[in-house]
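Students often ask what a holo structure prediction actually looks like on paper. The answer is less mysterious than it sounds. You provide the chain, you provide the ligand, and the output is a string of discrete structure tokens encoding the 3D arrangement of the protein together with adenosine-5'-diphosphate.
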Amino acid sequence: MIYVDKLRKEFKKTIKDPGLKGSIKSIFKPKTIKVIAVKDISFEVAEGEILGFIGPNGAGKSTVIKMLTGILTPTSGSCTINGKNPTENRRNYVREIGVVFGQRTQLWWDLPLRETYSVLKEIYEVPDDSYKKRMAFLNEVLDLDSFISSPVRTLSLGQRMRADIAASLLHSPKVLFLDEPTIGLDVVVKDNIRRAIEYINNQEKTTVILTTHDLEDIELLANRIVMIDKGTNVFDGSISELKTKYGQFRELYFETDSPNPVNILNYENHFNFKPDELNIKAEGKTVKLSFNSSIVPVSDMLSYTLGKINVSDISVKDADIEVIIRRMYKHGENL
Ligand SMILES: Nc1ncnc2c1ncn2[C@@H]1O[C@H](COP(=O)(O)OP(=O)(O)O)[C@@H](O)[C@H]1O
Ligand SMILES: [Mg+2]
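The corresponding structure tokens follow.
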């Protein structure tokens, strides 16, 4: 469905020397440097798949989405979506895709939402009867009724995001690009949006590329992850693969009455953890730690802990995806 082959985007960035003199000089003799935002990225997405496209800020995610949607032309490499090249024949191409940039609305600020949709209907040449059915469907999934007569500028961020997603789906696109669709939303609205994305993918087999830095979005929605960092691909696989490959971290929680459990336990001294292989936090009676179980097995941690202090309740958990990915981001590990 989607083939991305050694896609690359370079930007020229003007730099100036400091101070007024530098500013003046840069007007007449601009110095430019090359920024490689996306560095030869390749991946594929199958039809009906939800791909979680993740990476730290500035990794190049939005730039990739912009190339895949035809907003930016790649410096080199190629991408094919549903057999089409996004920058050739863009008019036809946009009929097959839907795009939402969470940070920016594509709706008309002063128009009541309903009229925005009528305009889009004309642009995409959606026939009357399909339009009626489609609006009924979108209203059911995204619950637009209560604000469909209001001008876009009066909507809350959550309403606006639902409205934007509906707009991107009006013409029943085969592929949906969502760039940070849950950014800035509260938990309840996030949950609504995730359900809507899941439902649409389920009902219509829409292929979805979802960029986010909310890892819960990924856990709940994505079948697969492509992770990029500094413009290059650092992981491509399923979430369970990521967990088995990099998830040697375990979390241990326990309750204790000991006055200063962290000092008494002194794990760092007893075991050979390197600084980032053990993390410990105590809050009231609860102690929470995460550690690398390939350095010290869970059983050793448990017997040592129970031998040192009085513990009333204890539980062990796999590290969640959030912990694994934060570590990968932090180290920029090349996987
Ligand atoms: N129009 C542009 N001109 C110059 N540099 C840009 C432009 N757009 C993005 N960049 C740079 O490219 C890199 C990737 O940006 P972006 O794709 O927005 O990252 P992400 O969406 O992962 O946060 C950043 O270093 C950013 O500053
Ligand atoms: Mg971005």
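Residues 2-243 form a domain with the Rossmann fold fold (CATH 3.40.50.300).
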